[in-house]
Amino acid sequence: MKPVAWLISWIGDTDHRCAEGKLAGQVGPIATALQGGKRYDRVYLLTNYDHARSQQYCKWLEELTSYPAKAVDLYSIELNSPINYAEIYDKVSQELIKARLPQDHIELTFHLSPGTPAMGAIWIMLSKTRFPAKLIQTSKEHGLESVDFSFDLANDFLPEYLQRSDARIQRLSSTPTAAPEFDKILRRSPGMQQQVDLAQRVAAHDIPVLILGETGTGKELFAEAIHASSRRSGQPFIAVNCGAVAQDLANSELFGHKKGAFTGADRDRKGHFEEANGGTLFLDEVGDLPLDSQVRLLRALQAKEVTPVGSSKPVKVNVRIVAATHRDLAADVAAGRFREDLFHRLAVGILRLPPLRERGEDIDLLIDHFMDQINADAQGQPEARHKTFSQEARNVLLQQGWPGNIRELYHSLLRSVIWSKDNEVTAADVKAALLNMPGREDGVLGRTLTQGFDLQALLDDVTRHYVVKAMKQTRHKKTQAAVLLGLSNYQTLSNWMTKLGISDDDLT
User: Fold this and answer.
1) Distant-in-sequence, close-in-space partners of 486: CB < 8 Å, separation ≥ 6
2) Handedness of CA 204, 207, 213, 217 (dihedral sign)
3) Quick check: is 445 in a domain?
4) Is residue 202 domain-shared with residue 83, that is, in the same domain?
5) Rounded distance, CA 122 to CA 401, Å?
6) For the chain, how far is it from start to end, CA to CA, in angstroms?
7) Is 263 exposed, middle or buried (0-12, 13-18, 19+ CB in 10 A)?
8) Strand 349-352 relative to strand 106-111: parallel, antiparallel, unpaired?
9) What pLDDT, in 10s, does the model give residues 142-193?
10) Can you list the pairs that 125-130 forms with residues at least 24 positions away whose Cβ atoms lie under 8 Å?
11) How far apart are CA 231 and CA 233, in angstroms?
12) Which of 44, 238, 327, 464 has a CB 3.0–4.6 Å from the CB of 287, allowing a cystine?
C-alpha cells in the first residue's frame, strides 16, 4: 500500500490570531509547516478552543495553503486545563486510537510548536512510544525544522522545552503520589485515583471501612492495600467471602465453636475473628450474611468480643473490619434484609469503586499489565510464545462494556492468547474469546463511550452483520437480500458489500 503522510497538530493561539489578522505579516506555526515544501495527504488538527473559531481558522488555512477542504480535518477535544499532563496524554491517545492509528502505511508527523509546552511534551512522549512519528517545529526566526533526538537526550530537551511556559514541571502530573502499598492498583482515570486517595486517608485511621463496587472491580485489592499501609500491617490479614459460606455455618466460621456445639463439631475451633486478632478481617460480600450473623457481627464491633457457638464465655478481640459488597445495602436496609445499625457501624469510611466501563483511561494500562503477566506465566510451557495484541484487537477490547469488570478483562485476554495461533493476537481472536452472556445488554447498545469508541466502526459492524445475514438467508440472491434490508435495488447492496469488504468467504 502506498504510504500516506499525515500532519497532526494542535491549533494554537498564535495560529488563530494570524488567521484573524491580529499578527500582521505572520501566518502562524501550522501554515508555516504546510508551506515548508512537504505535501501532506491529511492535516489532522486538534482544538480545545471554540469549535466555530477553529472552523474559521481551517477555512483560512485551506485558502492560504491551497489545501483541499477534504484534506484538513478538525477535531474538538475538551480539556479542563491545557497544562494538565495526564489529561492531555489520555485525551490525545484516545483521539489517535479513534483514528485507527498507528497504521503501517501512514507516516505520522507531530507538530510541536502550536499549543502549550505540555501539549508539545505529550507529542514527544507519544512519538517515542505508542505512535511512532516524525517531529517538527516552526518559528518566525528559523522557519520549519525537524526535531530528532534519542531518549537519552530527552531528559535535557524536555525541561528546556517546558520552560517556555509559566507552569513548572511539577504541574505536568495531576496524579498525587500514592503510598507504595497501593502500587498494585493500576489507574490513570480520575475516578479511580480519587478512591485511592480516599483509601490512603482511611488507612491511617483505625476505623471500619465499607467498599462498594460491582463484582470484579478490585475490592479485595483495596482491602489488602489498606491493611498493608495501616498500623496493623505486621499482623494477620484474613479474607472471608461471606457469600460462599453456608448460612448454617456462618456463625461458626466467623466466631468459632466449642467441641460438641453441633453435629460434626469434634473439636474446639477458632473463628476468623480470633484468627485476625490484632490485624484486619476482610468481609467480602458482607451483604450476604444471614440476619442472625449480622446481630453477632454488630456485637463484635460494639463490644470488641466474640462468643463462639456453644460457649457462654466471650473472647476479647482487637480486629479492624474492612467490608465489601456489590449489593445496594441502602435498599437492603429498607427491605429489612440488612440491619440498619450494622450498616452505620460498617459505613464509617466509604469507598465507591467505579466499574471498568467508567475507567476508559485505565483499560490500556490493564491490558499491558495482564499481558506481561500472561506471557511470564507461559514461559517454560510447551509451545509457549510471547504474544502481543494488534491495534485492531486492542480497539475491540477498548470498545467493550466489561460488565464483569477487571476479572472479565483478564480472562478474556487469557482466552484470546490461547485462541491465537500466531504471535500477534488479532481482532478475530478477541471477538472469539469474548463471552456473550444471557441477559446482558445488547452488544451494540451496551458499548460504553470511552477510550477507543468509534461510532462509524460500530455502524459498519452492524451493517456488515445484517448484510451477511440477508445474503445467507436468501442464498446469495442480491435482489432478494436487498428487499429484506429495505434497499431500493441490488446495486446499492453491492456497493455496501464493496465498501465493507464483504467477500464470498464471509458468506459461506
Assistant:
1) none
2) positive
3) no
4) no
5) 28
6) 28
7) exposed
8) unpaired
9) 889 888 765 443 444 444 444 444 343 343 333 444 567 788 898 888 889 8
10) 125/89, 126/89, 126/92, 126/93, 126/96, 128/154, 130/93, 130/96, 130/102
11) 6
12) 327
Q: What are phi and psi of 63, to 5 degrees?
A: -65, -40
Quick check: is 189 in a domain?
yes
Number of compact structural domains in the chain: 4
**Computed from CA positions of residues 72, 77, 79, 83, in that sequence, does the dihedral angle turn out positive or negative?**
negative
Whether 142 and 18 map to the same domain: the answer is yes
Cell of residue 478, nine digits: 442480491
CA distance 172 to 84: 6
Residue whose entry in the numeric block shows the C-alpha cell 490484632: 278
146, 74: one domain: yes
In 3D space, the residue among 394, 378, 395 whose CA is nearest the CA of residue 386 turns out to be 378
Same domain, 326 and 267: yes
* Pairing of the two strands 320-325 and 209-212: parallel
260 residue type, one letter: G
Residue 449 lies in a domain: no
In this structure, are residues 144 and 28 in contact, taking their beta carbons and an 8 Å threshold?
no
Q: What is the pLDDT of residues 416-440, one digit of tens each?
A: 998 888 889 998 999 988 876 554 4
- Strands 106-111, 143-147: pairing is unpaired
In this structure, is residue 443 part of a structural domain? no
Chain Cα centroid distance, residue 141: 43
Range of the domain at 88: 4-171
pTM above 0.70, yes or no: no
Q: Which residue blocks in 434-489 are alpha helix, DSSP H?
A: 455-473, 478-484
What the block records as the C-alpha cell of 201 is 486517608
